[in-house]
Fold:
Amino acid sequence: MRHPSPALGLLIVLVGGCASAGARPPQTRSPAPATAAPAGPTAQDTTSADRPQYASTYQRHPNPPVLIRNATILTATGQEIAGGSILFRDGRIVAVGTTVEAPGDAVVVDGTGKWVTPGVIDTHSHLGVYAAPSTQAESDGNEATTPVTAEVWAEHSFWPQDPQIPLAIAGGVTTIQALPGSANLIGGRSAVLKLVPARSVQEMKFPSARYGLKMACGENPKRVYGDRGGPSTRMGNMAGYRSAFIQAQAYRRRWDKWNKDHQGDPPDRNLRNETLAEVLRGSIYVQNHCYRADEMVQMLDLAHEFGFKIRSFHHAVEAYKIADVLAREGTAVSIWADWWGFKEEAMDGIHENAALVQQAGGRPVIHSDSPSGIQRLNQEAAKAMYYGRRAGIQITRDQALRWFTVNAAWVLGIDSLVGTLEPGKMADVVVWSADPFSVYARALQVYNDGWLVYDRNDPTRQPKTDFLLGREP
Amino acid sequence: MIAFLLAQTIAITGGTVYPVSGPKLENATVVIRDGRIAAVGTNVAVPAGATRIDASGKWVTPGLIDGGGQMGLTEIGLVPGTNDGGLRDSAVAASFNVLEGINPASTLIPVTRIEGVTTTLAAPSGGFIRGQAVLIDLDGRTIEAMLIKSPAGMVVNLNEDSKSAGGGSRAGVAARFRRVLNDAREYARRRNDYSRAQMQPLAASAADLEALQPVLRGEVPVIAVANRRSDIETTLRIAREFRLRLILAGAAEGWMMADQIAAARVPVLLQALDNIPTYDGLGVRYENAAMLGKAGVRVVLLETDTHNSRNLRQQAGNAVAYGMAWDQALRAVTLTPAEAFGVADRYGSLEPGKVANVVVWTGDPFEFSTGVEHVFIRGREIPLRSRQTELMERYRSLPPKY
Structure:
């Protein structure tokens, strides 16, 4: 959310930089594992968080093998294949190239004149937690009761019948990070979800994906808590994060000791510190809402003090002012193409933000933070790419494609599984009616883990949540 | 110095010209003289001494008109001191005209115009009878210099947001609107009685009732915000009863009753990229613009986020992607809004005598790959600079040049 109260009114990474990208490990092949232990931690450095609780029950939907032939394929690995074909089976990409044979049981899709990309990934969504129809009843994104709520989890708010979900699917989105809002200094855990129709959030949880931790800088926490006991200043914000992590350090020490010797009763569990301790262990990624350049530098100092990494700044309208610092730190930025001006800290937004971050060797991601914007991240990336080019910054189409595919996957720590079209990766594939960087392009088919979850030309393949049944004309 | 250009003659030559009022012209010339369009055509001689602008391979269109936002009335969304677009605690504010709230120095103005949007509505926000919107060109050091038409419309909100003004019911809102309009008629008939305090209390202040007179005479259109089908029906009903000149705005479920709206000859202002269902419009969909257009409704496309009024062309492109004819979409951001706001004699197309708001694009204005090469507002070439281009230049290479 732009702010916690309703608004007025609406690869290359670097060359070869997709370091953790690659074939999905064979042991995680489908059917998807039923448990979702965080990928990061090993047994000895976890606490109670590694028990199989709140597990993913995601199951790949069966779908015959699919061969899309004679399309322009943008792989997000630096390759653009004219007249290309892609074959996937059992949820996995089998082959991508100019000569791919169709197995006898494959559904063959004529891709003539069509374009194919990896599924779109949004690192910043409030689908499900700020669901439509946007009444107070669906407002579940900010636990705005105290400034540090590391103990809350977005998945516990997530409503899978949010009618916005099918709209995002129709925009080519296959994976999202659903985040708590930005009212709080530390807003809680995010959920990384496969965007498929489901009865429970558990059925959507991306197998093996780790959690993120939502943190927020600047105006929002100040505004929400300024007359409710604080923080009321940016220095108060900083003190708030530091106090929280100091407690988490002590908590982690107690648990690490007990995990080693198992002497006496285990320490008391504390949900807030449990989450923050996982951040300190590096197994939960920090996703930090932060607009201003100077504040991002403050947050990098905070991360150094406590020895964790900020995986991505979010919104980061001033990222271009410190693009060199961000590149050095290895922190991505999840940004809009052109939002600006809705508050003071968003006044310096410019069209060339993503391009300048790319030019400096950083890792830009185009995110939505919007149920509307999520439906056209390709268009938003197109704006950011072409404005960059017009300013003389040579952004390739492949780089801009990564802004809403594999760079986003990296931010979520799943870039070895999704985000590019390569053999072995999950078959999250979008067929577009035209060059996806054209305003006239629409997603025609969306495959999630090999399943045809949306087909613009087939009304039986256009999912609709329960909410709209019997209401639409 | 640039002001001297006003007196100059400019010839834009060799471009593909979209006059909007007629078919496109290949390799055509547009001549601008003294702030007006002097000639448009394929056989137009370049006047001697004219400043020539080579538009070979370029597209030339009228400046885009955005009827959606609060240009000049808002600077920073969350900073109240910079927002002047609405009256607080005033449900009926018919006499409120936004004009003197406009800040000609707003940073939004250069940000917007260098992307080809040359004219915008500045509309009041909040409340039920919100007040009077004005139409402005995005150039000029004073409000007077920017002004095209005031009022351009009386904005009335007849959707869910107004319910408190009607005691919590849509029916109450409709009844109150009728009461205000009836009292405005009554007031006009009995001004003397009113000044002698010989009338029952009226539903609005004298100033508001006075401001509604040109509305009742059909001289100023009512721009009515309504989204739910039943609200649109109520709006059409009230407009018939009082013979109002009506413009519908929002109209999320308008496509369900396109024929009715077309028959009423009511133009519709809408944002193409709206499809998030709320109880105020569960049927909202991207195809709304196209479906209304096909039924013969005059559709005006909007970008309602004032800070990104420049995305009007993205709205138009998406209207096309979801079924609207391209020519109709271009008309929906040029001539159709000029007609709706009653300024088509001066704005909205490239025709001799019209105000020289002209944009030269590198290609299809709706495409992301297209950039703006030249913008003329009232014949003045606008420097393609804004606060944002200055930030970009400062930080283009790091460390910045302070």
Notes: Chain B touches chain A at residues 74-79, 107-108, 125, 256, 273-279, 282-283, 304-305, 307-308, 310-311, 314, 317-318, 320-322, 366-371, 388, 391-392, 395-396, 398, 400 (CB under 8 Å). The longest helix of chain B spans residues 170-189. Chain B is about 25% helix and 20% strand. Chain B has two domains: 1-62+349-402, 64-347.
